[in-house]
């Protein structure tokens, strides 16, 4: 693979390899009964989640094909086709699910390898706006792996998310915040129990270990929690455990809508050195 020099692509690719390996290990541990059992997503079995992850890998191959060829290649033909593809494979036994996951991940890996350096700047788009540069496909795939690994309900939870994943996803939550539909006015991110688990930055605890805050988010109370707990709440991967209203300590309200856009609107076309 030809990466632009000194960019975040190497880091994202390494994270993608690790996240895929972790998902495959979890999938390999599941029996036929496990795969047929309900996931943490309402109405979906674990088989639905696994099939979605396989078809999502193929959908990202479509976007990288678009970037490589310049020919618009939709991520999915439409929402109905996306849903039908998931349902078609959801009821397979565990061995079929695992094979599909492995093969689709290998196809995505090959598409990443085949992308010329200049193509990482090409604009591509999903089912919702805005379009984004091709390098952000890797971020989106990591998001799918991290969130849906939790959704399997098979021993992997938010506490297992890598710190780099939590920091990046909180960054993008803030940059895509639905201000007109917000349920809170501010979010305070507390230092985790292990200070070494957080890197200083605008979206995490500061250098002195004190909280940092997102302000002027809309109407509602202020809530606080550690970065992991806040991300799990914002993305619907928890009911708000570890997140509370301040002052007062009441339970937090429902989160605002998550991922109302495909990507932040002002991403740089050229892969940056770091992201965020």
Descriptive notes:
The protein is an alpha+beta fold and 276 residues long. It has 2 domains: 9-156, Four Helix Bundle (Hemerythrin (Met), subunit A) (Up-down Bundle), CATH 1.20.120.450; 163-246, 2-Layer Sandwich (Nonspecific Lipid-transfer Protein, Chain A). The protein is 43% helix and 7% strand. It has helices at 9-28, 32-36, 46-69, 79-89, 94-114, 136-151, 163-175, 227-234, and strands spanning 123-124, 132-133, 186-189, 212-214, 222-225, 244-246. Helix 3 packs parallel to helix 5.
Shape: globular
The separation of the N and C termini measures 23 Å
Biggest sheet: strands side by side, in what order? 4-3-5-6
Mean pLDDT: 92
Approximately how much beta-strand content do the residues carry?
5-15%
Total number of strands: 6
CATH architecture heading of the largest domain: Up-down Bundle
Question: H/E element string?
Answer: HHHHHEEHHEEEHE
The total count of helices amounts to 8
Tell me the Rg in angstroms: 19 Å
Helix content: 40-55%
Spell out the CATH superfamily of the largest domain: dinb family like domain
What structural class should be given to the helix and strand makeup? alpha+beta
Briefly, what CATH class of the largest domain?
Mainly Alpha
Q: How many distinct domains?
A: 2
Contiguous low-pLDDT stretches (5 residues minimum) are 195-209
Biggest beta-sheet profile: 4 strands, mixed
Indicate the CATH topology of the largest domain: Four Helix Bundle (Hemerythrin (Met), subunit A)
């Amino acid at each position: 693979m030809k990466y632009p020099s000194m960019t975040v692509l190497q880091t994202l690719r390494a994270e993608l390899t690790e996240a895929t390996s972790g998902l495959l290990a979890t999938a390999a541990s599941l029996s036929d009964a496990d795969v047929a059992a309900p996931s943490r997503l309402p109405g979906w079995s674990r088989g639905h989640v696994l099939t979605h992850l396989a078809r999502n890998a193929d959908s990202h191959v479509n976007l990288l094909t678009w970037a490589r060829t310049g020919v618009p290649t939709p991520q999915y033909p439409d929402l109905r086709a996306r849903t039908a593809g998931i349902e078609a494979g959801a009821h397979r036994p565990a061995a079929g699910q695992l094979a599909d996951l492995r093969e689709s991940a290998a196809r995505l890996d090959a598409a990443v390898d085949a992308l010329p350096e200049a193509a990482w700047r090409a604009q591509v788009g999903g089912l919702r706006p805005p379009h984004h540069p091709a390098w952000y496909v890797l971020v989106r795939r990591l998001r799918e792996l991290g969130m849906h690994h939790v959704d399997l309900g098979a021993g992997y939870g938010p506490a297992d998310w890598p710190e780099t994943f939590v920091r990046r996803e909180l960054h993008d939550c803030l940059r895509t915040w639905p201000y007109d539909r917000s349920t809170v006015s501010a979010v305070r991110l507390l230092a985790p129990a292990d200070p070494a688990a957080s890197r200083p930055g605008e979206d995490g605890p500061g250098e002195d270990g004190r909280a940092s805050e997102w302000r002027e988010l809309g109407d509602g109370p202020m809530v606080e929690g550690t970065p992991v707990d806040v991300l799990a709440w914002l993305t619907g991967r928890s009911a708000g455990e570890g997140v509370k209203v301040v002052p007062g300590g009441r339970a937090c309200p429902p989160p605002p809508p998550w991922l109302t856009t495909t990507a932040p609107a002002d991403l740089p076309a050229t892969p940056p050195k770091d992201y965020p």
